[in-house]
Write a structure and sequence with these properties.
This protein is α+β, with helices and mostly antiparallel strands. It is built from 10 helices and 12 strands.
């Protein structure tokens, strides 16, 4: 069942329930008020009759004109003797005349139903001294009141039916407007699934609710993000294909040369073997970097733990100094600076930065570690050839190289800094680059010192 139908049915059923309760309340409240009003009318009439001296004295109770002045067309008034004999009566309604005469010695008010009609009565004893000599009875048929109640029921039924009809059309119209953006979103999704092209939803009406506007904006932001992601994926595939094409072409070319002429030419054979080996290593490094970058896209790539940043940097600097025979100077504000993160990934991040510094500079490299206001700051500074200012914004893009020929000479594939940026982002950190041509480059990493 659609949301529109559910909302419409819920609204209609809830409205019907409320109207039924309201009509029942109105009906019985009107009955109570009108019946009480009729009782007051009878009570006032009985009190007026009791004030009559002829009725008070108990003499002439059978006088024909005694009750005529109190007579009403929808009433019957009679005086009943102790032996249930009617001594005086006025009233011509056949239904009231069929009522049996019953003598009572106590004041009594009530209502009876006769042939579908409600009859209100009041019985009052008449005294002569301390002795009850007769009973005055007033019966009032409520036919006019019942007619009014029937009109009320009809009016309530008509208004209830009209309210339900208006509610049906109004709710359907309202839910149509309410669910229009959702339906448009569904249609857009189906169109995207059918055509394979991402599209956004255009919100033209200013009367849409804030929640629906937020929903549409969130959908459009998601589409925009997917569009950017797909564009990056296409660019990545194109760049990866381009990067893979070069070593494969070299390997294929030298393999062909070996097949044709390299068997007898030792120098050509050695050249081909060296070129194939070099390009194979480059291809291996490129594949390894691409797999690493693909793993870095996973949210559970990190393994959080508490570790000492200074210890990691010292161990890494010692290893790289021995390997590359280049001085790496480590400066820390204290002997221990702890943070929560993936120790291996932070080490990999520093390897990437220090490896670049070693490749593109010849002077000593400085690594500074500070802790300020629970922010761990790591600076890697070299005095190499530097990076042009217009190249810095693109530095962390995949397969981007500031100088392509020089990067190939050093064996770079343009993915190291992309992996480094991903590691920083997963740690919710920040990376800044400051560089001047021929003066060197400083890369600053900042991480929050979270507690495990």
């Amino acid at each position: 069942m659609t949301l529109r139908k559910r909302f419409t049915l819920f609204t209609i059923f809830w409205l019907i329930f409320i109207l039924i309760l309201f009509n029942i309340f109105v009906y019985f409240y009107v009955i109570k008020i009108t019946t009480k009003s009729e009782e007051e009318v009878i009570s006032n009439k009985v009190n007026l009759m009791l004030d009559n001296p002829r009725i008070q004295s108990g003499r002439g109770l059978n006088s024909p004109d005694l009750l005529n002045e109190y007579y009403n067309v929808n009433e019957m008034i009679r005086i009943i003797a102790p032996n249930n004999r009617v001594v005086n009566i006025t009233g011509s309604d056949p239904l009231l005349q069929k009522l049996p005469a019953t003598f009572e010695v106590q004041h009594h008010t009530g209502m009876i139903s006769q042939s579908g009609e409600r009859i209100l009565y009041m019985r009052v004893p008449l005294y002569e001294g301390n002795r009850v000599i007769a009973m005055l009875e007033v019966n009032r048929i409520l036919d006019e009141l019942d007619n009014y109640l029937q009109v009320l029921v009809a009016a309530l039924s008509v208004t209830t039916g009209g309210a339900i009809l208006f509610a049906i059309f109004g709710t359907y119209w309202f839910t149509s407007r309410l669910t229009a953006p959702i339906q448009q979103m569904v249609n857009t999704m189906r169109e995207i699934d059918r055509s394979g092209k991402l599209r956004q939803i255009e919100l033209h009406s200013r009367e849409e609710s804030a929640e629906l506007q937020q929903l549409v904006r969130a959908f459009n932001q998601m589409i925009e993000r997917l569009d950017r992601t797909f564009a990056k994926q296409k660019q990545f595939v194109a760049d990866a294909s381009h990067e893979l094409k070069t070593p494969l072409t070299v390997i294929s070319s030298y393999a062909g040369m070996l097949k044709r002429w390299g068997r007898d030419d030792e120098s050509l054979r050695n050249e081909a073997i060296e070129a194939i080996d070099k390009e194979s290593h480059r291809l291996q490094n490129l594949t390894k970097s691409m797999l690493m970058l693909a793993e870095a896209e996973q949210e559970d790539w990190l393994r959080q733990e508490l570790f000492d940043v200074v210890q990691v940097v010292d161990e890494l600097a010692t290893m790289l100094q021995t390997t590359f025979e280049r001085p790496i100077r480590v400066k820390a504000m204290s002997k221990v600076v702890r943070m929560v993160g993936d120790k291996d990934k932070i080490r990999q991040l520093l390897v990437i930065l220090l490896d670049n510094a070693i490749k593109y500079s010849k002077d000593p490299i400085d690594v500074t570690i500070t802790l300020v206001r629970h922010i761990v700051k790591i600076e890697v500074k070299d005095k190499g050839m530097g990076i042009p200012e217009n190249e810095i914004p693109h530095l962390f893009e995949r397969f981007y190289r500031v100088d392509g020929a020089r990067s190939r000479t050093t064996g770079g594939v343009g993915l190291g800094l992309s992996i480094a940026k991903r590691i920083v982002d997963l740690h919710e950190g920040k990376v800044d680059v400051f560089s001047l041509p021929d003066l060197g480059t400083t890369i600053t990493l900042q991480f929050k010192q979270r507690k495990q």
